[in-house]
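user: can you give me the structure for this one chain? tokens are fine.
assistant: on it. calling the predictor now.
[tool input]
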Amino acid sequence: MTPTETAAADALQDHVVLWSVGEVTGSDVVDVACDALVAGLDTPGLRVLAACTYAEASYDVHDLLPAALHELGLVFYPFEGGAGREAAASALARRMLAGAFTPSEFTLRIHRRYGHEPPLTRRLAELDDAYDILEYGDRTVDEVDAEVRAVARTLAAHVHSPGA
């Protein structure tokens, strides 16, 4: 794969896993499928997925994804599996590091979705709590943000990227 195709495959993989946990819509997945076609990825299943209208996406994405991902060598994570949760947390970390949302928004999303239990995201839940008590402690927002970014970099690299 060319670097452009690898980036498109990575973006599609991330969007699919985020769709499976309710972070993005089926229409978002269709948009990324279109971007993947433009980037040079081309399989029959990807073409069908990219051809969905936004109205169809809500209903059809689930049925179209397994074939499209298989053709590209990507993973369709089960909705209720540990690997899917880890992949979703990693995808959210990559989105935060790319500037899609702030470190505090990232920790809030992780904390709400996973709580304090999964070891992989426990520190992020604790950092979300740290934001809540900043006015009572000796840490600054910048210090907590820096720690969140450091944890996110580790988390973003945790699950192997599909296009790498």
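assistant: here you go. The chain has two domains: 3-72, 82-158. The two ends are 9 Å apart (CA to CA).
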